Amino acid sequence: MKYSVITGFLGKLQDRFTEYQTNRDIEEKFELASKIEGLDGLEVCYPADFADLKLLEGLLDKYSLDVSSLNVNLKKERRWANGSLTSLDEKIRQQAVNVLNKAMDLAPQIGCDVVTVCLLIDGHDYPFQVDYRRAWRYLVEGVREVCTHRDDVKLSIEYKMSEPVAHTIVGNVGKALYLCEEVGKDNVGVTLDLGHALYAGENPAESACLLAEKGRLFLVHINDNYRNWDWDLIPGFVNFWDYIEVFFYLREYGYQAWMSLDVFPKNIDPVEVFGRSIEFARNIERIVERISSEEIFQLINERNVPAIFSYLQNKSLNVG
What we know:
By secondary structure, the chain is an alpha/beta fold.
């Protein structure tokens, strides 16, 4: 596995009530990233990180960091307040397509082939607020236009149930897969954020399998929560066994793309948060190496839950 950090988490952070960390420019973010033990690259944000493309390219070279993906922000600007790809305003929808097309063009210039976007502003708060039929049609048409713009770059849709709208248009793994099938292009896929899957009441390993079976698993974001909100906690600190199962099935499918750290450091040292997150993920990889596919699937076929639990404890906790 290769591990990256989303650049947005390396500067000032805020929620609805307060602010955290320090406001850092892009050079300071790269300097901070260089101190994170085990980091392979960055998930850069568009347009925030692209004010000076030459500077960005120079920093990537200076710190020998790769780019895992290009994360497009289609929610922050006022023009997206009533939706981006699903806006009733044709001009706004086209502007959203143009932003994604620009990102698709920029990605190869900085050495990556994945553009990811979480359509958090596209959805609704109230009954009868939107025409669901028309919104879905606009979404499919917009995504298809972006994927047609160039087929050598992947467009990865990240799903999430809510925030800032109460119900997003792509809120779970089923709708994300359905969108991919509706678009009908090979270069459209899904970013599986494990925290979003937990928050949606999914089993993250099952979600990974559904996506991988259809060849739509393009990127994985790792973080954790208590299944009641997208807290973006240190991965595995809460849902330890879920992480073992997810990494096991990723191994089964031969997943070799990026793991991107989508963790909110809040009032903790970000270098330590991300460093320990990578350390944990590497340890999970080592645990999974000790799990025999033949042995575990034999136990699964026998439906022997106590034996499965004992086997996993032995492999992960070294108690047997």
